[in-house]
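pls read this stuff:
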Amino acid sequence: MPAMFERANFKDSIMIHVIDDSKNEKRDFTFSRSLLVKYMKYFDRCLKKISDNDEIDISIHCDAVIFEWLLNYIFAMEEYEKKHNDTNSKNNWTLKVQKCDNNADNPSQNKISNAIQ
């Protein structure tokens, strides 16, 4: 089953070489640099210091299946946030309620205080 993120076309693609010592294999993953920085603090520290125009070679030693799962999770989280933010922006209602002071001296002030804007 192909990874969800492999179908994506990232504008800021970066290649990550994963070396799985326990299985004696090497896998290459292409993923979004900005998503790595946003969701994985390790990459945030490493990639913030490097210009977007610089060529970099990233190799990490870890379980390749776990790393693929993490990338899928990050991709799914970003897609969820995009969908959630789009839904909220379409139904943007503002309701302002002010407290009524029951000001007997100035009845017109009560009408203004009760107004919903």
